[in-house]
Design a protein that fits this description.
The chain is an alpha+beta fold. It has a domain of 72 residues: 2-Layer Sandwich (Alpha-Beta Plaits). Helix content is 46%, strand content 23%. The protein has 9 helices and 8 strands. The strands form 2 sheets. Strands 3-1-2-8 form a 4-stranded antiparallel β-sheet. A 4-stranded antiparallel β-sheet has the order 5-6-4-7. The two termini are 34 Å apart.
Length: 252
């Protein structure tokens, strides 16, 4: 199975290279907090917490940090994080979708608006751009996790779990599902005793827009600024990551 958009593959690679360790830890800690608040501190009965713990392992977070985060989220003084999304346009008509987890919505919306303004973009109303993206489950696995299964058997198992696309690149597998089949794939991987390096819901654009390299780099500066914000969990966009743009980024 193949053919998934280059945008998603490049975005994942770039994100892995650019992300700061502290930001990665912060993101996972907030995921743990929300999961515990929603369904309790026992991973056995809390699929969302199992995903968060798996993601913590994927960024090499020490087990003690994970345990402290679960204990803290279970206590009376736990922080309350609220999920919210923001939609707008970057220069060149590039759609930008920002997902946040915040304990202060006034601060978050102020920061998001300021970034759009600083980089000559515009913040839109909620729901105004959602139709431009499909929400997909994205699972990253080590290729070694197949064990004794051959690739054909492995792909058939994944299809049974709801996989729409399976891509092997280097030493990893990327598995894509519909939003509705995200839970089914979690259960299938658990059944196969395979632990994902990361499991997340991404917003994949239906179509991507091409800008010249200079204009594209200005958009990416805006994206980077969003990703640096402490309240931002994910940023999605529909900028085409052309070969020329990738060459320019690698030359920086």
């Amino acid at each position: 199975m193949s053919g998934h958009s280059k945008w998603s593959t490049i975005k994942r690679k770039k994100g892995a290279l650019d992300a700061k360790r502290a930001k990665m830890f912060s993101r996972v800690l907030r995921e743990i907090n929300v999961a515990v608040k929603e369904s309790g501190p026992d991973p056995e009965g809390n699929p969302k917490l199992r995903v968060a713990i798996s993601n913590a392992k994927g960024v090499n977070m020490p087990k003690d940090n994970v345990k402290r985060a679960i204990d803290k989220a279970s206590g009376k003084d736990a922080e309350n994080f609220i999920e919210s999304t923001y939609e707008g346009y970057a220069p060149g008509g590039i759609a930008v979708f920002v997902e946040t987890l915040s304990d202060n919505l006034n601060r978050t919306v102020s920061n998001v608006r300021a970034i759009f303004t600083k980089y000559n973009g515009s913040l839109g109303t909620n729901g105004s751009l959602e139709f431009l993206f499909d929400r997909k489950g994205v699972f990253t696995l080590d290729a070694s996790s197949l064990g004794e299964m051959d690739e054909d058997e492995f792909e058939m198992e994944l299809i049974d779990g709801g996989a729409e696309d399976v891509i092997k690149e280097e030493e990893e597998y990327l598995i894509y599902t519909s939003f509705e089949d995200f839970g089914s794939m979690q259960r299938k991987l658990e059944e196969l005793k395979i632990e994902a390096k990361s499991s997340e819901l991404q917003r994949i654009p239906h179509n991507t827009n091409v800008l010249d390299v200079d204009a594209s780099q200005k958009v990416l500066k805006m994206i980077d600024k969003f990703e640096e914000d402490e309240d931002v969990q994910n940023v999605f966009h529909n900028l085409e990551m052309t070969d020329e743009l990738m060459a320019a980024l690698e030359a920086e």
